Amino acid sequence: MSPGPRLLTLSSLGQIAGLDHDAVIDVRSPSEYAEDHLPGAINLPVLDDAERARVGTIYKQQSPFLARKIGAALVARNAARHLDGPLADSGGGWRPLVYCWRGGQRSGAFATILAQVGWRVEVVAGGYKSWRRLVVEALHDRPVASPVVVLDGNTGSAKTELLGLLAARGLQVIDLEALANHRGSLFGAMPGGQPPQKLFEGRLAMALARLDPARPVVVEAESSKVGDIALPKQLWAAMRAAPHVSVAAPVEARAAYLARAYADVAADRARLARVIALLRPLHAAEVIEEWLRLADGGAVEPLAAGLMARHYDPRYEKHRARTASARDRTVTTASLAPGALGPLADRLACAIREMTA
Prior knowledge:
Layout: E1 6-8, H1 13-17, E2 23-26, H2 30-35, E3 42-43, H3 49-61, H4 64-84, E4 96-99, H5 105-117, E5 122-124, H6 127-141, E6 148-153, H7 159-168, E7 172-174, H8 176-180, H9 197-209, E8 217-220, E9 225-226, E10 229-230, H10 233-241, E11 244-248, H11 251-261, H12 263-267, H13 269-277, H14 285-296, H15 300-323, E12 329-332, H16 338-355
Parallel strand pairs: 1-5, 2-3, 2-4, 4-5, 6-8, 6-11, 7-8, 11-12
Antiparallel strand pairs: 9-10
Helix pairs in contact: 3-4, 4-5, 6-9, 7-16, 11-15, 13-14
């Protein structure tokens, strides 16, 4: 007889980053998986959302025995479907890691079937809750280990693109906007929408766990939220206390950059008009109408310049006046054209290394 599944205790995010299983299988329902899951996990539910709700209702309203019997039948059917489908080509040496929510009933049942096939299967002790506990400890209970430097600059300063160029130059960076799938402004929605808060936090926790704590990490200046995603309190506290290296570029250069970077938004004039209309409570009617006229005419650079001059820049300057520090540095540039960004990143990298030496 094949040995049964073994338990695996998750003790650190570093351990999770080093998992070498052939597959990590989340057997929870699709809605549970969509909210959050272990890094790289695939979803092979042993009960879908409707089945899970049905079994839970029977458990509460009729009897636990009947619920377990019906649940076992559903798990067996779904397991057979997975064996005939996604797992059909897995060979004899295949080594999966399986988890469910917490109690281990769903993962234990599925893992037992996999073990009987002959696969070397392990089950996460404590299930998803073990993973979530590690994420909460990392983001909410412990300070960020690496010294944080904030890449700052007014709207349109190419900060996100420069962050990637800094990474290419050997600096540690975390791209919060990429993790949150949002460009961090009123116009920043991205295709596919934002991940759930818990899924974002899991991605961020793993990004932090991969850092060398002896070296600084550069993040882009953000408010306490990126779109609808809230930054965890320990990272937000570190960002508020961190030195800033700012990009200073003329409004014309920033407007030209925004026209390139937000070409997808500018091409959808109806969407552009809807977002501009959200600014009505903050600006005079004639200003809004002027912005709408520019948007309708495809005058993207004048629109970007107007939005920065009247809306974004004054707000950035107020915030910067409250948070300025003697440690801060400013790097000036006359251009944000594609050919100018590499040399600008070189100068920023030098400034950051001097600041943190």
